[in-house]
Amino acid sequence: MTGGLLAAVRDLPPESTQQAVGYPSLFLLVALGALVPVVPTGAVVSSAAVVAFHQSSPFSLLFVFLLASSAAFLGDLALYWLGQRGVRSRGGSRWLAALRGRVTPERLAHAQERLDSHQVSVLVLSRLVPAGRIPVMLACLLARMPLRRFARGDAAACLAWAATYQLIGVLGGSLFPEPWQGVVAAVGLTLLVGAVPVGWRRLRGGRRDALRHEDA
Predict the structure, then answer these.
(1) Using the 8-state DSSP alphabet, how is residue 120 labeled?
(2) Which distant-in-sequence residues (6+ apart) come within 8 Å of 137 by Cβ?
(3) CA 124, CA 138: separation in Å to the nearest integer?
């Protein structure tokens, strides 16, 4: 499977075909990943930035940035709007339940504490921290933050997020002569960035459990 992926990125189509197919695909994948958090959108943006870096058009990177940030913003707004419907309804909704199912009580409490302390500015950090977006979004929903106020903070968050992952892609593209090499490097780096916080949280959780066991 890995060999097939490498072969696919080695044999990149002509630049015009990359743009005609790549830009709509980038928008759809990022929007879908924002709405249904299963697509590794950071890796998608970094990979698109690598390809754009090696293209002759001076506006390729700008298009990647605009498409990625706008798709993330629209996806976030759609998910927040669906979550608001669940908050207002007595029976809730499957979207709100799905958000709750992805957040532990401890992480939700931490997100609510940060939201109380830093208000809307915490949205920017939540998008930059891997797996930090959903807990903060759920905290905003439970605090009944209006959609317009959420949108103001989320717009800045999506711009910062797109710029960060595009920078990772540009770095990967500048280090290697071939686009496929930069794509592999960018994807590996984004996966590493996402894995480190998860591993750190598990390590801290294991230490807390050990301390509780010793106290008992």
Answers:
(1) G
(2) 76, 79, 80, 83, 99, 126
(3) 15
